[in-house]
Design goal:
This protein is of the alpha+beta class and 143 residues long. The protein is built from three helices and seven strands. The protein has a single domain (3-127), classed as Nuclear Transport Factor 2, Chain: A, CATH 3.10.450.50. Strand 3 (64-79) and strand 4 (82-95) form a beta hairpin.
Length: 143
């Protein structure tokens, strides 16, 4: 894995974080492939295409007055024109009603493709562990 390729991918993921903090859909559009498939924590099971991905983020912005996003332990594997990464992420901020939301830690997986010389997020998946007995998500874990 070359340092240049890793830096380029990390830069794209940082753009996602920058876009979230700025609540700016134009910034968020750039790092994603136009045909991105996202398996997010909110329904439906999948969001297909950049417009669906941005609509998901727009719903977050409707709920939050301020947004922060923290990413921990990002690990990358790069080969040719495809790469994947995984990390822990936490969305937090202040909701429009003034309540501070500390958020929950989730598991994030990225699948990237190099498209016309630029790394783009072609797939992302966000998940929480669940308790197999109750069938409920476990949202109080920390990395």
């Amino acid at each position: 894995m070359s340092a240049h390729e890793e830096a380029a991918i990390r830069g794209q993921i940082e753009k996602v974080i920058d876009g979230l903090r700025a609540k700016d859909l134009d910034i968020l559009r750039e790092p994603y492939a136009s045909d991105v498939v996202s398996f997010d924590v909110e329904p439906p099971l999948q969001h297909v295409g950049i417009e669906a991905k941005l609509a998901s983020w727009a719903r977050v912005f409707q709920v939050f007055e301020t947004v922060d996003y923290e990413l921990r332990d990002l690990m990358l594997s790069i080969g040719g024109d495809v790469a994947f990464g995984y990390a822990f992420g936490r969305l937090s901020g202040t909701m429009r009603n003034g309540v501070a939301a500390a958020g929950m830690w989730v598991r994030v997986t990225y699948g990237l493709r190099k498209i016309d010389g630029t790394w783009r997020i072609a797939h992302d998946q966000v998940s929480v562990p669940f308790d197999i007995v109750s069938g409920k998500g476990v949202v109080d874990l920390e990395p």
